Amino acid sequence: MYSQLKQSKSLHIVSFLFFIQFSFGQNNSSKTIRGQITKGESLLENVSVLNTATQEKIFSDQNGIFTILVNQDDVLVFSSLNLETIEYRIRSNDLKNELLNIKMTAKENKLKEVVVNNNAHITAENLGIIPKGQKKYTPAERKLAVAGDFKPIMLLGLLGGSMQLDPLLNKINGRTKRLKGEILLEQKEINIKKLGELFEDSYFVDYLKIPADYIKSFKFYLVENESVAALLKVNDITGLTPLMSQMALKFNEINTIENK
Questions:
Q1: Which of 31, 112, 163, 240 could be stapled to 158 by a disulfide with Cβ–Cβ 3.0 to 4.6 Å?
Q2: Whole-model pTM?
Q3: Residue 243: CB partners within 8 Å, gap ≥ 6?
Q4: Tens of pLDDT along 69-116?
């Protein structure tokens, strides 16, 4: 009798341990899932998908498609410029379905705190110090405006005594040309800074496959391109990303040749 009770108790323990092992195995079975990211009717490319459990990070393709290895209860973080970040927990049904649909929305532009200034109506324009609507210059542009740009027709004014000598003298000594070069350099520096604001270093490394040590060089390479400069001027990220992808391929090709 005692032997039967002991045998029965052992059987229950083995069954219980088997049940725990089975359950644990079910909850930790990894699977590669396939998903698609959209915003309204648009397919979203270059959206970052991060599995917080495994730290695996990938980007969606031009059709908004991504594939990533997950377990049940893993949390995926979807993020992109100008889009609201989404955190999605993987459920058991997601492991069975053929496609995981992720719908994202545009990021709201939240206004910064407004400080009321009772004297805001008093401006240099209202006081008549400067004309209304006058263009505001960058430091380099102000220098060029003061130096003046020489035009041949100004020589007629010299004969009549009405021509300013600054533009002529600056033309002779090359100062105007140098100042124009400073404006171009200043604009390139502004564009490089804007690239850093729009795209994190991880985007250049993970998606464009630019080595981390070459990110700065690649940014210089980008801003030399007139099309890139024009797109940065209007913040056209949709047009900018495919162009950057093409230029990244060429940049990496050049680097490979030079490093041989």
A1: 163
A2: 0.40
A3: 225, 227, 228, 231
A4: 999 999 999 998 888 999 999 999 999 999 999 999 988 755 444 444
DSSP string covering 34-100: EEEEEETTEEPPS-EEEETTT--EEE--TTSEEEEEE-TT-EEEEEETTEEEEEEE--HHHHHSS-E
What pLDDT, on the 0 to 100 scale, is given for residue 35?
96
Structure tokens at 153: 């027709």
CA distances from 171 to 96, 148, 150, 221 (A): 74, 9, 6, 31
Question: Which of the pair, 12 or 45, is modelled with greater confidence?
Answer: 45
Structural domain spans, the chain: 29-103, 199-260
The shares of helix, strand and coil residues in the chain, as percent rounded to the nearest 5, are 50, 15, 35
Exposed e or buried b for every residue in 128-151, given b needs 16+ CB within 10 A? eeeeeeeeeeeebbebbeebbebe
CATH 3.10.20.310 assigned to 29-103: no
The strand pairing partners of 67, in sequence order, are: 34
pLDDT tens for residues 176-209? 556 555 657 778 888 888 888 888 889 999 989 9
Structure tokens at 243: 């162009």
Q: At what angle do helices 237-258 and 215-223 cross, to 10 degrees?
A: 120
Cβ atoms of 237 and 195 within 8 Å: the answer is no
Give the DSSP H/E element, type plus range, for residue 31.
strand 31-39
**Token pair of 222 as six digits:** 């980008």
